[in-house]
Design goal:
272 residues; flat; mainly alpha
Length: 272
């Protein structure tokens, strides 16, 4: 098999994996569609709980009452189908990985997913309740809040993304140390800059209130410290397992590994 045929084969497999991922998302989306309104009500619950009694959110657009619940349901469908999407991504890249890379990559994928969902859950259950109550108590009594559902969705998506990425800080730290980009000692020395940077990022990403900025900056710093601890533990384990470091493969071993990866990829395609 020449290089061009191999490239086309990989493109076909990538297309198949993407189609399976999209199919899984659409299947979950169609299952949730009859309850799209309930899904949005669940998302809006932290805001509704802080509004004055009898007050509801408003929709200023003509099709907004229809489109916003659809967008929220699609987002929920993606989260629900995330295990399938991650499995397809793993199945695509796994045949080209070495044994020690597979041992490291699989926990990395699982950890990344769990941390991202944990960030969203932390934002929904803790941050929203605190921030919305703070804003409601700070607002003058002469004002009756009536948030627009489209603006609320935009705010929620921004906050979910910010906290989801923030909770990936331990993974980023581990990767930087694991691949020799930076040492643990250098990370420890840069701690003051990381703390200042965390508050700057929080000030840019979150709304202009002290509570939400503090609640994003503090987890970012604490997760940075957690990443350093985990990087130390992983470094010790790698040192114990591999007698100090990974040894580079010679040309013959490299060719053997490439042949093995090609055979595994062909077997996976034939088994579909």
């Amino acid at each position: 098999m020449d290089a061009q045929e191999s490239f086309i084969t990989h493109l076909i497999e990538l297309r198949d994996r993407l189609l399976k991922s999209i199919t899984a998302i659409l299947a979950v989306f169609l299952c949730l569609m009859p309850w799209a309104g309930d899904v949005y009500d669940l998302l809006a619950m932290p805001m509704i709980a802080t509004l004055p009694a009898g007050t509801k959110m408003i929709a200023t657009g003509v099709i907004t009452p229809f489109m916003v619940p659809i967008k929220v349901t699609l987002m929920a469908a993606f989260v629900g189908a995330l295990p399938v999407v991650l499995y397809q991504a793993w199945a695509f890249v796994a045949p080209g990985l070495y044994a020690h890379e597979k041992k490291f990559a699989l926990p990395l994928v699982v950890g990344t997913t769990v941390l991202f969902i944990a960030g969203i859950a932390f934002c929904y259950f803790f941050v929203f309740n605190t921030v919305f109550k703070f804003i409601a108590n700070f607002a003058p009594s002469s004002i009756t809040p009536a948030p627009d559902i489209e603006q609320y969705l935009s705010f929620v998506m921004t906050m979910f993304l910010a906290f989801g990425i923030t909770f990936e800080v331990p993974v980023i730290v581990i990767l930087l140390v694991r691949f020799g980009v930076v040492s643990i000692e250098k990370l420890v020395e840069s701690r003051p800059y990381v703390i200042v940077g965390a508050f700057i990022v929080a000030a840019v990403v979150t709304p202009p209130d002290v509570v939400s900025q503090f609640m994003l900056a503090m987890p970012m710093w604490l997760l940075f410290e957690l990443g350093i601890v985990l990087a130390r533990l992983i470094g010790k384990r790698v040192s114990t397992d591999d007698d100090g470091a990974h040894r580079p493969l010679d040309e013959r071993a490299m060719n053997t590994e490439l042949d093995r990866a090609e055979v595994e990829s062909a077997v996976n395609r034939e088994s579909k």
